[in-house]
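Example S7 (structure tokens).
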């Protein structure tokens, strides 16, 4: 064990195992996760971490071990695939959930156990604007079939992930059977027998290489009427159409994935913080006091300023992810029972948090990489690969700006309800105070009040102010004679800013609520420090908002920075222990810099020597290209 890392793990002020249990949702869950990891994967003789793992083996193993709980499947898969992407991830996270939520019982029993599929919604011309999709589905009562057709080049289905050219069960979204409705179809056709289908791969991408993203062009392809997923909407044999309770029920799978992505952003950020903080504990560089030994780079204040707010953010997003999936499960259960009353709130929350967490984590991964200097740029650190795999999450499953605007739509609607005298409940209930001017700037003491509850209140006031400013911008545009749509478009910068502040407040509130539930004094203390750091760091980044909201005075601004520096110093002794609590196994992290034992340099030399480029003393290219050239000179 590297002596620095060893020293960092002495004098712990909190019980790491208890913090790991909190992250897992209890000691039993931690034990089960480790059992799956150690016994069912790492100690499985059929599992050789070095060789490309096969999907069929994984599926057969899941069946052999009787693992069917979605969380446990995820634990098994994340150990099996490490930080990489699995080839058929889309089957699990989109195709199956769509069948589960959109099939009627007959279809469910017929299809679910049998097929592997993809989700073909996006077209070359439209990914965001679903009401603009062009693929048509025309019902032919004579043959009881739908005729699927791609009328234009922009209607070609583009991006479906995991679309193996050999088979093609896929979920379609096609243009409206009626004014504003979409429907989902299971293709049911298989290649190459089916004529009228042009299929292929969209070509090399930035990353995401484990997943083959394809294209699909349909030329009047016929599928049985029964292939329309008919839980919510039906087309009867006579061609009559039964509308769903809400046209947005078709969007359900996207809301599910967005809810999952929130916690995933926390996991990915926790992986990168583990790598960067462990490496910063063993890396010595330059000098602080002339003539003294080179310090650990983790002792530089700038290095702490780069990494510790991200560490706090990783914990914040992991807790937000737990809250998000609990809320999704609760409300989707109600929707299943026909109660759609909270569907708008679920959409607004999942859309906003998906955008907020992925944008922040995306930037954070790069900060972690750069904080490791040159070795961060080496694939041995795992950081470049983590970035390449994570960054499309800002685009897929709802492009982030568009998602923030969806949340803004809900905030504006809520604001108008408050103005009309309605009493709001749920995540936007803080807007009730805006109307009664309870949100007038509080008398803020000369010193910054560090109480976490006060900080949450300040974030609430900031969010409410920005919601009101966005609403006022729309009103001003309208007053200038702009139509409603132009007034909206001319206010979208303010609207995104309001949504971002709303999400920031929600995440801090969830973090504070989680800390309040922690009973162990040591764990409560260290998590309270991290929650303060998360809040103060955000106040430092958005000082203008807090000044504008009147909850921070110019005289107090220096104390924000002073307080931040104090919190960084407070976190320093626990930094390595806090990433140990994430409990990422070396095999899963797959990072020379993030090793639990901290023996970075020896491992890096071994990693480099094992490179295919070093398989021979002299690379074959010398004999093939340079030597013949030399002979001619
Ligand atoms: C571990 C993880 C690994 C994750 C790893 C997994 C890998 C994933 C790979 C990527 C897979 C994909 O990308 S699959 C493709 C993903 N594609 C998308 O996400 C498409 C994004 N676009 C959309 O969702 C939609 O077009 C919208 C929401 C932007 C706009 O929809 P629209 O129908 O035009 O609605 P719009 O006019 O804006 O609003 C009309 C009303 O509908 C409401 N509304 C809109 N959507 C919804 C909704 N979902 N639920 C409830 N209500 C909704 C609005 O709030 C509004 O209410 P009111 O204000 O009138 O009351
Ligand atoms: C790695 C990866 C995997 C994918 N896998 C799948 C898959 O399996 N199945 C599938 O169906 N799709 C998949 N997609 C497609 C993905 O869902 C779309 O790319 C995504 O929804 C964004 O849509 P778009 O590409 O049309 O971008 P656009 O919407 O064209 O975005 C371009 C720009 O326009 C802006 N913009 C668009 N609309 C508005 C608006 N109303 N207001 C303000 N600005 C706006 C956006 O903010 C953005 O800056 C995948 C994409 C990627 C990158």
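Recovered sequence:
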């Amino acid at each position: 064990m590297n002596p620095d890392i060893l020293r960092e793990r002495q004098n712990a002020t909190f019980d790491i195992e208890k913090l790991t249990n909190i992250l897992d949702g209890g000691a039993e869950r931690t034990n089960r996760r480790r059992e799956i990891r150690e016994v069912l994967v790492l100690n499985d003789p059929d599992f050789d971490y070095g060789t490309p793992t096969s999907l069929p083996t994984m599926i057969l193993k899941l069946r052999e071990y009787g693992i069917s709980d979605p969380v446990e499947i995820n634990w098994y898969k994340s150990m099996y695939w490490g930080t990489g992407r699995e080839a058929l991830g889309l089957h699990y996270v989109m195709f199956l959930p769509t069948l589960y939520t959109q099939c009627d019982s007959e279809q469910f029993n017929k299809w679910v156990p049998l097929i592997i599929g993809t989700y073909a919604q996006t077209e070359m011309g439209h990914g965001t604007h679903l009401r603009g999709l062009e693929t048509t589905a025309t019902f032919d009562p004579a043959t009881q079939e739908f005729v699927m057709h791609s009328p234009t080049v922009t209607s070609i289905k583009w991006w479906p992930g995991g679309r193996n050219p050999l088979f093609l069960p896929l979920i379609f979204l096609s243009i409206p059977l009626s004014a504003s409705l979409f429907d989902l179809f299971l293709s049911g056709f298989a290649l190459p027998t089916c004529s009228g289908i042009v299929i292929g791969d969209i070509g090399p991408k930035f990353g995401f290489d484990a997943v083959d993203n394809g294209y699909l062009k349909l030329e009047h392809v016929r599928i049985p009427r029964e292939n329309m997923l008919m839980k919510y909407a039906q087309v009867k044999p006579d061609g009559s159409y039964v509308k769903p309770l809400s046209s947005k029920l078709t969007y359900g799978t996207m809301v599910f994935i967005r809810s999952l992505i929130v916690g995933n952003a926390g996991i990915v950020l926790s992986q990168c913080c583990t790598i960067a903080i462990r490496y910063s504990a063993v890396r010595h560089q330059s000098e602080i006091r002339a003539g003294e030994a080179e310090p650990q780079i983790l002792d530089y204040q700038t290095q702490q300023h780069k990494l510790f707010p991200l560490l706090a953010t990783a914990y914040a997003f992991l807790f937000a992810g737990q809250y998000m999936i609990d809320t999704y499960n609760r409300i989707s259960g109600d929707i299943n029972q026909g109660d759609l009353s909270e569907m708008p709130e679920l959409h607004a929350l999942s859309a906003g948090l998906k955008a907020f967490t992925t944008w922040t984590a995306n930037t954070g991964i790069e900060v972690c990489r750069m904080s490791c200097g040159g070795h961060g740029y080496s694939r041995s650190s795992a950081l470049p690969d983590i970035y390449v795999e994570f960054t499309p999450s800002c685009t897929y499953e709802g492009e982030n700006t568009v998602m923030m605007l969806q949340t803004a739509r809900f905030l504006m609607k809520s604001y108008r309800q408050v103005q009309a005298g309605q009493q709001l409940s749920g995540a936007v209930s803080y807007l009730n105070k805006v109307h009664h001017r309870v949100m007038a700037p509080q008398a803020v003491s000369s010193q910054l009040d560090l109480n976490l509850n006060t900080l949450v209140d300040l974030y609430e006031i900031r969010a409410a102010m920005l919601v009101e400013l966005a609403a006022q911008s729309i009103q001003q545009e309208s007053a200038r004679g702009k139509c409603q749509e132009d007034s909206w478009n001319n206010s979208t910068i303010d609207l995104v800013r309001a949504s971002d502040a709303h999400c920031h407040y929600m995440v801090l509130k969830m973090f504070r609520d989680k800390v309040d539930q922690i009973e162990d004094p040591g764990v409560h203390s260290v998590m309270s420090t991290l929650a303060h750091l998360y809040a103060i760091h955000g106040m430092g980044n958005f000082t203008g908002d807090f000044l504008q909201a009147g909850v921070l005075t110019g005289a107090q601004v220096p104390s924000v920075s002073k307080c931040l520096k104090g919190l960084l110093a407070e976190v320093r002794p626990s930094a390595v222990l806090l990433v140990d609590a994430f409990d990422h196994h070396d095999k899963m992290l797959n990072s020379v810099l993030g090793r639990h034992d901290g023996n970075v340099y020896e491992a890096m030399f071994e990693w480099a020597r094992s490179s295919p480029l070093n398989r021979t003393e002299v690379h074959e290219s010398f004999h093939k290209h340079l030597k013949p050239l030399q002979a001619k000179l």
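Notes on this example. Residues 90, 119-122, 126-128, 159-161, 208, 213, 392, 395-396, 399, 401-402, 405 surround flavin-adenine dinucleotide (ligand 2) (CB under 6 Å).
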